[in-house]
Structures are given as structure tokens and as C-alpha cells.
Write a structure and sequence with these properties.
By secondary structure, this protein is α+β, with helices and mostly antiparallel strands. Helix content is 29%, strand content 15%. A hairpin with a 2-residue loop joins strand 9 and strand 10.
Length: 409
């Protein structure tokens, strides 16, 4: 099923389905590491096996080198006010029950928060409240929030700063005249086509196989060696995990520490998250980076807390973690940016998907991962899933999320 807002595969998140061991593109030898055994390389190459991804999406720390994001000693406690999710929902043109929808869209976890309280919480397929789950390109929206924090504390002086102000190694590449704002909006103009033809020779195949499977170089190394301009910066939306990878490297350079450490200090602990989270790496330490474009893993409730913080204008349990101005700038389309293309039904602001016809906005990752936020109905919905293909019933899920957000006690 083709998404109404993602042009073919270019607007999927940064990983995609591999049914057999990937053929690694020619690259320097991987650094020696416990993470580069033949077994683990093969495991990473096959992490999207449809029959097992319900399990692998809960277990990426067993397959990848990781960096931890540490929770505080005391967490933000959420009250409960149960809500029946009754009625029917639409899946592939048929009216189905809630259970049929959850099974049909391969749901591992569903959390609904209304008016600041947990209205519905469901764990399936071995997931429990303590287990981090992959969120793939939901990571992009989280990274953008960290960029906002870096702007607020002065680490990033301005969104109009050039990428090369923080990453001089990208001088002479397609990113030379690109601003931080351009990469936030996925409008760098850099030639990148996010198409998944594994075993082939696409850009995404090359970087995925070498950075994430073989641990031979980082995503930002590819940007430094191979990024070429195609459009003028700011001219055209083009969904690009490479842009987010560069944004993450800008952030790390600006704050002078790892993104995981910065996130612990500035977001995860001040917001009162309950459990440690982690980023998978695009190479083993000390040579790798967090996989900024799609590598974050967290528990269902902590993802709900993140969404609730955004809903409450950056406030978490009485603490102003990120400014209300940044929340609005990130999630409300600027004039002229309401749609990613003339015919599109969705927009893209600062690494968040927006909707021209309503206030809701969403972080979206491949294989049906969502953090959906609707200010009008005061609802946050987190859905974690394991669809057999990358797109995974996105149209039906967005309709489901909108309908659930309108339910009342």
C-alpha cells in the first residue's frame, strides 16, 4: 500500500527490510571489535526478517553496539483513567475490531494518553513495560528536540549557521552552503535517494551495509566523502536520513559530547523518564556515532512521556524541559511549508510530520512506529509494531490514530 504522503520509498525511515545477508559494498576493513564477528554482521544484515522482527525490534542491543541514555532515580508518575476503545476501525477497506486491527498491523505495544492520564495500554508479542523497542525514524523527531535544546543553551548559535561551521570536514561537499535549518527541514539540496534495493547499488544500500551492517564507516563519513549538491539549499523537500545524520553530527560537535550523554543530561533525566534508553551505533565505540536517523530505542511509556512533554508545550511533570517556542517552531508548519509537495496531504517541519487540515503532528518510523500528538483532543498515542515491510499500513494507522484521539470517556 502506497502512503499518501511519502513519495515511493523516499520518505521511509532509515532502515529497511533485509531478507538475507547483505552484500557489503567495497569499503575499508571494519575495525576489530567484538561487534564485528561474522555472526553479528550476518545478524545485523538479517535484522528485518519478517517472521522474527517482532523479537529483533525488542533486542537491538544484542545485535549492535549501543550508547545508553540514563534515566533519573525518580520518574514522572502517570495517573490512569481507563477508556474503552470500542467501535470498529478500518484496515485494508474492511471494518475490524480493535484486536483485529492490532494483530493486522502487527502491533507490539499501544499506549493512549488523554488529558495527561493513561487511557489505554497494551503489550503484545513479548513486549513488556521495561523493554526498550526500536522506533526507527521517530528518532529524527527526538533528535530535533535535542537540537532545540542546543539552540536554547547557546551551543548552536543560530539555525541559520552553516553546517560547515560545526563540521569543517564537509567543506567542498554538497553540504558546504547548507544551513542547520535546511537539514532540519530535509531541504539540504544534497543528492540523496532513499530507495531500498538491497543487494543492489543504491546510495542507501551502500551506507546501510557499510555503516550499520559491516561497521566500516559512519554515516557522516559518507557525507564527507560523497555528498553532492543537486538542488539549491532550501528549495526542495527530499526525505533523507543522510540529512538527519549530518544534523546529529552537527549537534555532537556543537555540544562537545556524545548525543547520548547530552540527551541524558538535557532531556531524559529532566523529563523524569522511567527507564534507561539507548541508541544503536553506526560503528563500535570509539569510532562510531549514534545512528541519529533511526537508532533510538525506548520503552512504550517513556515514549508516551516524551509525547506528553511535547503536548504540554515542553513541560514534563512541572519542569520546563524544552521551550514552548521550540515546540511550536518544530511542529507547526511555517507558511508555505504546509505540504511537502503540491499534491501531498502532509507537511514536514523540524523533523516532525504535520497535517494541513488539523493541529495534530506525528513522529513516524518504518514498520509502523508512531508517536502521534493531537493538541485539540489533548491526546498522545504511541504505537510500536513489527510489520513485514517498511511502509506497513501507514494510511490505515493514521486514520486509526485520528479516530482514537477523538474518543471520549
Amino acid at each position: 500500500m502506497r502512503s499518501p504522503y511519502k513519495n515511493n520509498a523516499i520518505a521511509l525511515a532509515a532502515l529497511a527490510s533485509l531478507s538475507s545477508t547483505a552484500a557489503l559494498a567495497a569499503a575499508p576493513e571494519a575495525p576489530e571489535s567484538a561487534w564485528t564477528t561474522a555472526t553479528l554482521i550476518e545478524s545485523r544484515a538479517n535484522m528485518f526478517h519478517p517472521a522474527l522482527n517482532h523479537l529483533t525490534f525488542q533486542s537491538l542491543d544484542k545485535m549492535f553496539s549501543t550508547r545508553a541514555v540514563m534515566a533519573p532515580s525518580a520518574s514522572w508518575q502517570l495517573e490512569e483513567a481507563p477508556l474503552e476503545l470500542d467501535g470498529t476501525f478500518t484496515l485494508e477497506g474492511e471494518d475490524v475490531s480493535l484486536e483485529e486491527f492490532l494483530e493486522g498491523t502487527r502491533t507490539n505495544g499501544l499506549l493512549v494518553i488523554k488529558d495527561g492520564k493513561i487511557a489505554y495500554e497494551r503489550y503484545r508479542n513479548g513486549l513488556d513495560e521495561t523493554t526498550p523497542h526500536a522506533v526507527f525514524s521517530v528518532s529524527k523527531s527526538i533528535l530535533a528536540t535535542l537540537v532545540g535544546l542546543a539552540v536554547e543553551d547557546g551551543s548552536i548559535a543560530s539555525l541559520d549557521d552553516k553546517v560547515v561551521d560545526y563540521l569543517p570536514a564537509l567543506a567542498g561537499t554538497g553540504y558546504e552552503d547548507v544551513s542547520v535549518l535546511d537539514v532540519l527541514r530535509m531541504r539540504s539540496g544534497v543528492d540523496w535517494e532513499e530507495v531500498y534495493e538491497f543487494g543492489g547499488t543504491t546510495q542507501l544500500t551502500e551506507v546501510h551495509d557499510n555503516a550499520l551492517v559491516g561497521y566500516r564507516y559512519r554515516w557522516c563519513d559518507y557525507a564527507a566523502s560523497s555528498a553532492e549538491g543537486k538542488y539549491e539549499p532550501g528549495e526542495k523537500f527530499n526525505y533523507s536520513t543522510l540529512d538527519t545524520s549530518v544534523l546529529g553530527c552537527v549537534l555532537a560537535s556543537a555540544v562537545g559530547t556524545t548525543v547520548a550523554e547530552y540527551m541524558t543530561e538535557k532531556l531524559w533525566q529532566p523529563a523524569g523518564m522511567e527507564f534507561d534508553a539507548y541508541w544503536i551505533m553506526d560503528g563500535p565505540e570509539p569510532v562510531g556515532d549514534e545512528f541519529y536517523g533511526a537508532g533510538f530505542n525506548a520503552t512504550l511509556r517513556d515514549l508516551g512521556r516524551f509525547g506528553l512533554m511535547m503536548l504540554e508545550q515542553g513541560e514534563a511533570n512541572g519542569t520546563q524541559v524544552v521551550s514552548a517556542d521550540w515546540v511550536a517552531a518544530s511542529t507547526v508548519s511555517d507558511p508555505g511549508y504546509e505540504r511537502i509537495a503540491d499534491e501531498a496531504t502532509i507537511g514536514y517541519q523540524y523533523q516532525w510530520w504535520t497535517f494541513p487540515d488539523r493541529e495534530a503532528y506525528s513522529a513516524i518510523g518504518i514498520n509502523n512506529q508512531f508517536v502521534y500528538i493531537d493538541p485539540q483532543s489533548q491526546t498522545v498515542i504511541v504505537k510500536l509494531s513489527h510489520t513485514p515491510n517498511a511502509q506497513g499500513w501507514e494510511e490505515d494507522t493514521l486514520a486509526f490514530l485520528e479516530k482514537v484521539s477523538q474518543l471520549t470517556p
